[in-house]
Amino acid sequence: MDISPLQRVRYAYQPKLPPILKENIADVVPTLGEKTSSATDQDAIKSLFPHTYGLPRVSFSKGKSEKIAQKRNVGVILSGGQAPGGHNVISGLFDALKAANEQNTLYGFKGGPSGILEDSYKIIDSDYLQAYRNTGGFDIIGSGRTKLETEAQFEVCAQVCKKHEITALVIIGGDDSNTNAAVLAEYFLAKGHGIQAIGCPKTIDGDLKNEFIEVSFGFDTATKTYSELIGNIERDANSAKKYWHFIKLMGRSASHIALECALETQPNICLVSEEVEARKQSLVSIVDSIAQAVSKRADNGNNFGVVLIPEGLVEFIPEIKALIEEINHLLAKEEAAFNAIFDTTGRISFVESHLSKASATAFSVLPNEIKAQLLMDRDPHGNVQVSRIETDKLLAEMVEVRLKQMKKDGSYKGKFSWMTHFFGYEGRCAFPTNFDADYCYSLGYNAFMLIGAGLSGYLSSVTNLSQISDAWQAGGIPITMMMNMEVRHGEKKPVIKKALVELEGEPFKYFASHRDKWAIETCFTYPGAVQYFGPAEVCDRTTVTLALEQGN
């Protein structure tokens, strides 16, 4: 048996489309809406993107399209980390491409943006694509994190496209990748290359969104996958009644994954990095709040529970953020002296002796294992690799120490045993949910509609997603309207602004109104495995986050 029964059935699944995209492809035309502007830094963004700034929003309506049937070669690039549904974006793009003209050709550049720089590609045809429809992963052509930043790189992209008579590129990626798409679109227009650039919003972290990009693809599948695992652990905890589980979840820059999983599973505690930063919570205060919840549950005879932790939490704790910045600066300045010390204890002592009083205090409360992790090899930009810091273990160990102190003063009488988990890669390449299979296929199909309309510098947009697909709306938004200026590597650069958890948003407000009860009582819910067959309310449902945001 070469493939599983589920694979075989999923290959045959026909994703749903918004109504306008079900029309004959030649009977759909773009409708231009109001002109746009960036939310901030308008003058700076406009000066950097004179050809693509202020473009109008686009929707589609019935009408006769005279240009869509023109023969085209289109290139596609998968960029950044994997997210469930990427294969379906390519499937939708391919099907629309062929529906417009059977002579059209799709070039898949291999290994991410480096594929176009190296002219490494795969011609995607129907037979090759069939084995990837409705599946997870990016293995159809592979992905990569090469950044397209220089004019020399842009010109290589242009010349490779011209070599293959490619007149449009679709870049499937997150905020940085779609910033690349915007920059490429601007360059191609400025140089008169006649090559369009269209983006598709991907990231399981959920931080690429706004009013017109309601959710980035992969978020639905990843959070449902993690929520199944969390629900399984909750059931085990409630059965064994002897462990506290500290679970770290992906999400370095934003806590959307942790919050959605909390809404799905109702754990005892879920930390939200954005709230920690807003309230200026210290590490000690976070540990104490968890310890108090553990103690209160122990008073009810419940020596077990579940804590959810966003991957990037430590960077949102004010004194730890300052500590990390100081260590980064110190190790860059004292690199030779630091590298001359080979034992971990010596390295820790060296750093302690060079820190400011405030940072030395913050450093001193950390377990030695976490101190060592803060001093590991830096990333290419000289910064600590936060994803390698075992925040789950850090909190569990510090809570254990705090409970021992509370036991001495008589305020805690329970038993505390803990386990840690990190759910990350388990969700990035999962079989896409029906929602992500449909949404991603629609994004890809819609991306070709934008190409057929002669547009460039746009992000494929499908909205009204908390409703059934028959109510979905297709269109596009200029990428520049999502951009702002940020300092990167010491220079101000245009980038797509990350969307963080809004503390005044309905998802967080709902969570905040229930968490005190969840902390003390056992209110676990068990989402179970992703379902593909059965009632729509089970199989096609979207995330709780999106439902709350849209009042459903």
What's the layout of helices and strands?
Blueprint: H1 5-11, E1 28-35, H2 42-48, E2 56-62, E3 73-78, H3 86-100, E4 105-109, H4 113-117, E5 121-124, H5 126-130, H6 151-163, E6 166-173, H7 175-190, E7 196-201, H8 219-240, E8 244-249, H9 256-265, E9 269-270, H10 273-278, H11 283-299, E10 305-310, H12 318-333, H13 335-339, H14 344-354, H15 357-364, H16 368-374, H17 391-408, E11 418-423, H18 425-428, H19 434-452, E12 458-463, E13 473-478, E14 483-488, E15 491-496, H20 506-520, H21 536-539, H22 544-549
Parallel strand pairs: 3-4, 3-6, 6-7, 7-12, 8-10, 8-11, 9-10
Antiparallel strand pairs: 1-2, 2-13, 4-5, 12-13, 14-15
Helix pairs in contact: 3-19, 8-9, 9-20, 11-17, 12-15
Explain what the structure shows.
The chain is α/β, with parallel strands linked by helices and 552 residues long. The protein has 2 domains: 258 residues, Rossmann fold (3-Layer(aba) Sandwich); 255 residues, Rossmann fold, CATH 3.40.50. The chain has 22 helices and 15 strands. The chain has a 9-stranded mixed beta sheet with strand order 1-2-13-12-7-6-3-4-5, sandwiched between helices. A 4-stranded parallel beta sheet has the order 9-10-8-11, sandwiched between helices. Strand 14 and strand 15 form a beta hairpin. Helix 8 packs across helix 9, helix 9 crosses helix 20 and helix 12 crosses helix 15. The model has no long low-confidence stretch (mean pLDDT 95).
> Which parts are unreliable, with pLDDT below 50 for 5 consecutive residues or more?
none
- The structural domain count equals 2
Number of β-strand runs: 15
**What is the CA-CA span between the terminal residues?**
43 Å
